[in-house]
Amino acid sequence: MQNFLSKLEKLEEQKIISKNKIENLKNKLKEISKEIEMIQSKIKQKTEEKRKIDLEIKQFELLIKEEEEKIRKWENQLRESTKFREQKTLMDEISEAKKEKSKIEDQLLELIFKRDEIENELKKLKEESEKKIESYQQKLNELQNEITNSENEYSEITSKIQILVKELESNFPEIFIHYLEVSRDKRIKKPIAKVERSTCTSCYLVLSPEIEVRLYTNSSYEICPNCGAILYVEIDEEEQPRETAQE
Ligand SMILES: [Zn+2]
Q1: pTM listed for this prediction
Q2: 181: CA distance to ligand 1 center in Å?
Q3: Edge to edge, what strands does the sheet with 222-223 contain?
C-alpha cells in the first residue's frame, strides 16, 4: 500500500507542477499578445496623426488658393480701373490678401515640417515593429506548442491518476472515500502526503510519536490531524510482505 500511495502522491505532485506550468505558459502568451497589441495600437495612432495632418495641409493649401484668386481678381480690376479711390481700395485689399497669404504659407510650412516628422516616426515605428512582431510571433508559436505538449502531459498524468484511483477504490475502499473528500477540499495542498522527518509534507505539522509508531508498525495509513491528508511512510523493501499479509 505504501508503494501505491507513494505512486499516487508523486502523480498528484506532477499534476500540480504540470498545471502551474500550463498557467505560466498561458500568462506568458497573454503578455506577448498584449505587447503585439500595444505595438499595433502605436502604429494606428501614428497613422491617424498623419491622416489628420494631411487633411490640415489640404485645407491650408485651399486657403492659399482662395487668397491667390482674390489677388488675381483684384489685380485685374486694378488694371481696368480708372478711378483713383477704387484703385486705392483695391491696392489695400491686395496688400491685405498678400499678407494673409504669406501668413497662411508660414503656417503651412510648419505643418509640412511636422508631417515629415510624423512620416519619419511612422516609418521607423513600422520598421521596428516588423522585427519585433516577427520575433513575438515566433515566441507565440513556440509557447503554443509548449502549451499543447504540457496539456498532453497533464492529461496523461490525469489518466494515470484515474487508473490508480480506480485501483484505490477496489483495493482500499476506505482510503478511497477519504481520498475523494480530501481531493475536493481546495485548502488541502496534497491529498496524499509522505511523512518525512516526522512531519506531514502537506501542512508541515510535526506529528505525534503515536501516529508515527502506528504508521510503522501497522504499515497502514493515517489521517493528518491538522490538514486531513492521507499520511504514509516509506517502509524498506523487506518489510513489504507484512503489508500483503495484513491485507
Ligand atoms: Zn497535514
Answers
A1: 0.73
A2: 14
A3: 199-200, 192-196, 230-232, 222-223
